[in-house]
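User: Fold this, then the next.

Assistant: Folding the first:
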Amino acid sequence: MAYAPIYPHDPIEKIDDEVYMVRGSIKMNPVVRISRNMAIIRDGHDLTLINPLRLDPAGESQLEALGTVRRVLRTGAFHGLDDPYYIDRHDAEFWCQPGGETYPLPSIDHEISAQSELPFPDADLFCFSATKQPECIIRLKRSKTVLLTCDAIQHYGDYSNSNFVARAMLPFIGFPKTTLIGPIWLKFMTPEGVSLKTEFERLLEWDFEALLSAHGTFRESGAHAAVTAALAVAFPD
């Protein structure tokens, strides 16, 4: 099987107890390359990759030093480009909500839902219930409470890992340097005649401090207030 190419990325970085991230990128078309992030959860020697991105040889060595890749967990229907690579290379289990249309493969080993128990400790799962395709959010309760999102909620402290064209374009297509509800995600995931506002209000019943989305940068603090403000922008009264 031909796998997707390796795109530029940073080294693996620890962001909390047994929680790591890789800030990388993805080429959207011949001229635009935007940021993309992977989260890594370690439980003992077992690793779970959240919304994986393929690593270069140095990154692979770092990953192998952390532990053994046991699981790939997809939280958003628009992500999945590098899932087959990790599943094949590491014989990893694939955890995913059913019903995604963008990347129908690989086949799911463990279907996840709002009632699912996650394969690592001290974590909660939030599932959107009214979106056109599945999307979920993970809350990790470690030294801080970290929200792991895919496309629904994003944070941009800067535009690093995006190329020049993307950096020039992002502020004008709804991605300013702030925390936001993904405008493209909202457009394609909202059924006709439906508002997803109550879904986000349900999420805000959770407490959380930090935010790592599948795009942008890691927000270390103030995430709950920032998402509250983003909701008011996305759904003005």
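Now the next one, as you asked:
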Amino acid sequence: MGSPAKKVAFIGLGNMGSNIANCLLAGGIDLTVWNRTASKMTPLIERGAKPAVSAKEAARSADVVLTSLTDDQSVLDILQGDQGILAGLLPGSVHVCLTTISPRCADELEQIHIKHGSFYVSGPVVGPTAAAANGQLLSYVAGDPAAIEIARPVCMAYSKQVIAISERPSIANCMKLAINFNVVSTLELIGETYAFAEKCGIPLVYLRDFYQQMWFAHPGAKMYAEKLRARDFGGGGGFVMKGGLKDVRLMLATAEENGAQLETGNIVERKLRKGIEAGMGDDDWSAFYEITRREAGLP
């Protein structure tokens, strides 16, 4: 396991996955791709990626397999079975999971790979799809140190920084949930503030300037502050509400398992659920501000 990976397989070509795969190609990596919806492979094949007919075939010759899927079950399903990753993955190869999954699932994945003779690294990414397209994601990785070093050059192709935080894979997933909890709690804070300001008659442009120029320096925070002020929830750059609810529920479950309370998380979970029930499931997750507005009696 001492040499850098030569061949990489990428499985799961949604918005985030496609952008990450493009970064791998731009970095000159020998890339094989597979996706359940085959048409999503076409743009990458045109740029030089090799197509596979199954996850098994994609993994067969790979030193590193990256998965960017939806949730716990989708990762477990694509890993196992006659046409799954493990059916083709050679012992000693490394699987890096980029998906936001539960820490419990990460522990399960590690044990599955140990039994197979392969290596599992949790590598959840932080950043919007625009950051993925520009190779500017932040990657937290955890797992066997030697496996991390095999995967690191691959992860660097789409990351501005790769931070190894533990030998236990689930710690990286706990870190991602902690970061996402800060994001979603900040959305609640900004949303409550805007609703309060509007009820009081404060022009929101002044609060926008306060957030952008003084309070929040990070571009992502500025993006969300403006999304809420403008009530612009249909454009790209963020995270859909259905995915946000999944993540918030993972945050709450993990907190409960560890004897902690995320009270703001319970508030946000309720509003995300109401937003989805109101037909906003495919809008940016910050759209739960509309629930805050409704509950404040705003149109």
